[in-house]
């Protein structure tokens, strides 16, 4: 089965054709993409020839979609109803769905949701301590994101350590321009760091991660900032970029490999908050850059420990995403503060690692692995699963 994987971001479109072994036969990236132009999809389909199925990434499934689902008009309508939860991504996903269905009207299509992997969160992990009336009226809960990446990375990590998935406790670290962790116990997400929006949790390239909600209210009530100004600041001027100041705004290449949900109009290739640039500034003695890295690593260690607490420890620590895959120094800095959890990395093995690899120190109780992010492969897997279930 040749599967066309359609990944619509907030301002971009990624197209991949995968074969039955998840090898990429062809690919095309369109940036910027307005969500309306069908021509990029039409050109790609003409170039690649036969397409047996289409798999779409949809950022938000709300409480409606707890897994992938075959697309039809009623499913499309329900996806559209969730637009207010992801106002920049959902319309682009709908545009991609419409474009592909117009060009391939008889080819089956499946929607795969970034939030669905976290539908298994227990109530204790998913529930905010808010008034019950608010939670019921507006569906206020922790949804989590990066689910397609966490699902693939945790399963691939189990293969690398040759461990039975049903007994593994995996902490998956998706680190790119956006970043989140997932606690995966026996293949199921039981906790994660992102919440109602992708703003919660870790420090990211330009997003603040978790902050005191009282601070946000203070900025509106006492500093006189508008809600729009605060939102922009938290989304686009915070994180590593905000901590590092001028060093966080420099550079010419963004954090590679980030396929995270971006509730911002900023292109995914932005250089703002690029950890490579900030690290170079830190090595030149820039105090703000050094602080940025220290805060980033502190929060990362803190949240990894929290994920362990959600499942009584861990067997496997996995790094994925552009930063997670390529920044050996960050992996070692992170592991250096997690020895009490049984984490130890072989520094030479880690520096020399390429692609999917184990980087644990000999005898380490926790196996540490690096996994190349493959949301496209996860979408293809889910697409096959849905179609096999409907035809088998």
Characteristics:
single chain, 16% strand, 6-stranded mixed sheet, alpha/beta, 392 residues, 16 helices
Written account of the structure:
This protein is α/β, with parallel strands linked by helices. The chain has helices spanning 39-48, 73-81, 89-103, 123-126, 132-138, 147-160, 213-221, 227-236, 239-244, 246-249, 275-283, 287-309, 321-326, 328-336, 347-352, 375-391; strands at residues 3-8, 13-18, 24-30, 53-58, 69-70, 109-113, 169-175, 179-185, 188-192, 316-320, 357-358, 367-370. The chain has a 6-stranded mixed β-sheet, sandwiched between helices. Strands 9-8-7-10-12-11 form a 6-stranded mixed β-sheet, with helices on both faces. A hairpin with an 8-residue loop joins strand 11 (357-358) and strand 12 (367-370). Helix 6 packs across helix 16 (375-391) and helix 11 packs across helix 12. Mean pLDDT is 92; it is low at 252-270.
Contiguous helical run count: 16
Proportion of residues in helical segments: 40-55%
Q: How far apart lie the N and C ends?
A: 15 Å
Beta-strand content bin: 15-25%
Number of strands: 12
- Succession of helices and strands: EEEHEEHHEHHHEEEHHHHHHEHHHEEH
Strands ordered across the widest β-sheet: 3-2-1-4-6-5
Instruction: Indicate the overall shape.
Output: globular
- Average pLDDT confidence is 92
Our Rg estimate from Cα atoms comes to: 20 Å
Helices and strands: which structural class?
A: alpha/beta
Unreliable spans are 252-270
The biggest beta sheet, please? 6 strands, mixed
Question: What's this model, at a glance?
Answer:
With 392 residues, this protein is of the alpha/beta class.
């Amino acid at each position: 089965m040749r599967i066309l994987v359609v990944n619509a971001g907030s301002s971009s479109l990624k197209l991949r054709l995968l074969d039955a072994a998840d090898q990429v036969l062809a690919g095309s990236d369109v940036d910027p993409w307005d969500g309306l132009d069908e021509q990029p999809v039409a050109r790609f389909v003409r170039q690649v020839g036969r397409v047996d199925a289409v798999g779409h990434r949809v950022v938000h499934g709300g409480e409606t979609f707890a897994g992938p689902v075959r697309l039809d008009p009623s499913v499309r309508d329900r996806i559209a109803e969730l637009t207010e939860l992801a106002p920049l991504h959902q319309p682009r996903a709908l545009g991609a769905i419409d474009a592909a269905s117009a060009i391939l009207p008889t080819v089956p299509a499946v929607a795969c949701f970034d939030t669905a992997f976290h539908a298994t969160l227990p109530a204790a992990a998913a529930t905010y301590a808010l008034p019950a009336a608010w939670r019921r009226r507006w569906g206020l809960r922790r949804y989590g994101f990066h689910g397609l990446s966490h699902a693939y990375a945790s399963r691939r990590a189990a293969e690398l350590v040759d461990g039975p998935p049903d007994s593994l406790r995996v902490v998956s670290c998706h680190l790119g321009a956006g970043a989140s962790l997932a606690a995966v116990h026996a293949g199921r997400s039981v906790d994660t760091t992102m919440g109602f929006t992708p703003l919660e949790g870790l420090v990211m390239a330009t997003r603040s991660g978790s902050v005191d909600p009282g601070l946000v209210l203070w900025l509106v009530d006492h500093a006189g900032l508008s809600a729009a100004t605060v939102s922009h600041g938290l989304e686009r001027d915070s994180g590593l970029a905000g901590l590092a100041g001028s060093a966080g705004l420099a550079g010419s290449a963004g954090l590679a490999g980030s396929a995270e949900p971006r509730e911002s109009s900023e292109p995914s290739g932005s250089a703002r908050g690029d950890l490579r640039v900030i690290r170079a500034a830190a090595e030149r003695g820039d105090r703000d850059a050094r602080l940025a890295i220290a805060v980033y690593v502190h929060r990362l260690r803190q949240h990894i420990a929290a994920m362990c607490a959600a499942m009584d420890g861990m067997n496997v620590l996995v790094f994925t995403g552009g930063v997670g895959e390529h920044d050996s120094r960050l992996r070692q800095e992170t592991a250096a503060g997690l020895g009490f959890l049984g984490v130890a990395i072989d520094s030479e093995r880690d520096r020399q690692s390429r692609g999917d690899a184990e980087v644990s120190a000999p005898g380490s109780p926790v196996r540490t692995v690096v996994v190349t992010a493959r949301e496209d492969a996860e979408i293809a897997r889910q697409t096959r699963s849905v179609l096999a279930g409907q035809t088998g």
